Amino acid sequence: MFGFFGSFMLMIAGGVPIAFALGVGGMIYLFLSGNAHVILAFPQRMMAGVDQFILLTIPLFLLAGALMNVGGITDRIVTFARAMVGHRRGDMSSVSVLSAGFFAGISGSATAEASALGSVLIPAMTRQGVPPAYAAALIGVASVIGPIIPPSITFIIYGVLSGVSIGQLFLAGVVPGILMMGGLLIYASYRARRDGFPVAEKASWSERRTATIRTLPALLMPMIIVVGIKGGIFTATEAAAVAVAYALFIGTLYRDLSIRKIWEAMIATALVSSSILFITAMASIVAFVFTLEHVPSTVAAAVLSISDNPILILLMLNVVLLVLGMFLEPISILILTMPILMEFVKITGMDPVQFGTMAVINVVIGMATPPVGILLFIVCAAARQPLPAVSREAMPLIGILLLVLLAVTFIPAISLLLPSML
Q1: 160, 338 contact by CB (below 8 A)
Q2: For 185, what's the count of Cα atoms within 13 Å in the CB-facing half-sphere?
Q3: 205-210, Cβ contacts within 8 angstroms, sequence gap of 24 or more
Q4: pLDDT digit of tens for each residue in the chain (422 aa)?
Q5: Which residues, other chains included, contact 124 with Cβ-Cβ below 8 Å and sequence gap of 6+?
C-alpha cells in the first residue's frame, strides 16, 4: 500500500485535485502490484459508486440551501438572531453563533456557511469594535455546526457508505449541534465582557415578533425534513425533493426569488454536487483497492496490537480523523476510511449511529483546525486577516468543540437520545 499512499500524498502536496489523486493513486498501486488488467474495470466501478438512488439527496439538499440563500434567507436569519440576542454585550458575536446554528438547518455544508455568513457578519462585528481576527475565527469555527445539525451532506455520505439510517443520523446530530452552539455562545459572552465589547439597544417585542414571522418558515425546514423521514411520510430522497419545493415556496411567498436567482442557485448546486459525486466515483476505486489488499483487517490488527482497550482505541481514532480533517475534506475522508471504520465499529461495540456522529464531528472539526483547515482560509479571505492571527483566536473555540466531541464519544445518550425516543 505504500505505492498508493506515497503517490496520493505527493499529488496532494503538488496541488492535484483530490478526486484525481484518489483515482490515479489507485491505478498506480494496481500497476505496481501486477494487477494492471483490473484498471479496465475502473469506469464500471466509478459508475457503480454513484449509481445509488440515495445520492440524489446531495444535489437536492444543496439546491434547497442555495435557493434559500439567494432568496435572502441569510439576511433574515441574521436579523432574527440580532432581535433575539442583540442586546447582549458584544451582540454581534452572539448573533454570529446563533446565525450559524440556524443557517446549519438550511445549508448542510460548513464551507457554504462560512462563505455566506462570513461576508455578512465579519464586517458587522468589526464595525462594532470586535477584533477582525477574532470575528473571523468565530465564524470559521461556528461554521462547523453546519454539517452537524440536519440536513447534513456529510451524514448522508456516512449513511450511504455504512448502511445506517440517515433519519437516525440526522436526529443524532441535533443535541451535539446544540451543545456546540451553547458552548460557543458562552465563550462569546465571556470574551465580550473581558474585552469590553459594546452593548446595543434591546430590540422591542414588536421587532422580535416581526423578525420571527419573517424567519420562521426557513427555521421550520429541518423539522419538516426530520419529522417527515422519521414519521414514514417520505424517504430521505423524497425529503430532499420536499426541501427544494419548500424553498421555492418560501422564496415565491416573500417575492425574493427571480428567474435569474433560481438559475444562479442551480449553477452553484451543479458545480458543488458534481465535484462531490466525482470524488465519490473516484473513491470507489480506492475502496476496491482496500478490499483487494485486506487493508481494513490489517489496520484493525495493527491497532489491536497496540491496545485492545476500547477507550484507547476510540481516542486513537479521534486523533487520526482530526488530523485527516485538517488536510482533506470530510466526504473524501469518509469514503477513504469507511471500510476501516466499520471494522472498528465491530471492535468497540459502539452503536453505528453514535460512531457515525463521532466520526462526522471529527472530520468537520478538522476543517477549522490550524494550520490548514479550509474554513480558516475562507474566513481569512473575508476578514483580510493573516492565518496565524486567526488561528490563535480559533484555538479556545476549537477546544470547546473537542469537549463536545469527547462527550459524544463516551456518553451514548448525547447522540442516541433523540433517535431512541423517536
Answers
A1: no
A2: 19
A3: 207/83, 208/83, 208/84, 210/83
A4: 556 667 767 776 777 776 777 777 777 777 776 766 666 767 777 776 667 776 777 788 788 877 877 777 767 777 777 677 655 655 677 777 877 777 776 767 777 778 777 777 788 778 777 888 988 899 889 889 888 888 788 888 888 888 888 888 988 998 999 999 999 988 988 888 887 776 666 667 777 777 777 777 777 777 777 777 777 787 777 888 888 888 888 877 777 778 888 888 888 888 878 877 777 777 777 766 766 666 666 766 777 777 778 888 888 888 888 887 777 778 778 877 887 888 888 888 889 999 999 999 998 898 888 766 778 888 888 788 888 888 899 999 999 999 999 999 999 999 998 888 86
A5: 78, 92, 95
How is 56-73 classified by DSSP, letter by letter? Answer: GHHHHHHHHHHHHHHTTH
**Extended strands (E) in 258-360:** none
Scan for cell 494487477, then name that residue. 35
Indicate the domain borders of the chain. 46-421
